[in-house]
Design goal:
single chain; 296 residues; 0% strand
Length: 296
Amino acid sequence: MSVLVLLLAVGAACCLGFGFVLQQQAAQRAPLGDFLSPRLLLDLMRMPRWLGGIGLMVVGMALGAVALGQGEISFVEPLLATNLLFALALSRRSSRQPLGRQGWAGLALLAGGVTAFIVAGEPRGGTAVADPLRPWLIIGAMVGLALLLTAYARRTRLCSAPMLLALAAGLLYGVQDALTRVSGERFSAGGFAELLTGWQPYAVLLLGVTGLLLVQSAFETASLRASLPALTAAQPLAGIICGVGFLGDRLRTDTGALAWEAAGLAAVVTGIVLLGMHPAMPKGAAVPGEAALQRA
């Protein structure tokens, strides 16, 4: 376990969490007609608060990319999931809500789950799989599921739409993290010439822009508590699947270790849900219909 990777991942989580809060505060003021439209990003670019949130997110993504380049994705992704703690801290400062039992329980589960998974699994690097089809199958499954979730959210416009969009974005961001690591390895091996001749950096850019649109549409139509927990839970799970599935990351697989790893991931997801439902998280509009009425 590298202390540098730990510090980089936690720093990335801090920037991401603060950035998400600023983005949501700006996105909820955007026109509802921009839902899932590229126009939404153009409108948000005129808002200084949103630009500040994007700046923090870019810094967080850069720190995360360095961490992914130095460590295993199965180690970094659970740490990045702690961005919800920092989002809660900033939201709590503005709402002045005490943590209470629910908040402390969520904190304990999230922190304990991350610790349990890392200690039990002992993530370590390995050799990427030689089968050229496996990466495409895993990436295709992740992207395909994200497309299905987005299509359903677009068609229904129900109160569950923000959560579905956040889940879809989390899947895309998890794949993006995996491809970011591959891009870093290509750059280390041959510089920009090696990097730009591969498809991975272009896929990273496409996934990033698409995920950003999904996240901002979720932020626009509902509160952080309706979207950020789903995003925070889906991204590390997708990243770990990619890391173990085709990047060569290895985890301990004896019975005891597997039990603790599963318990750790379950605790992370439960803690994320509890923190996302905490009163300190800004409520915003509950459903798209309510958002429209509030803006009318």
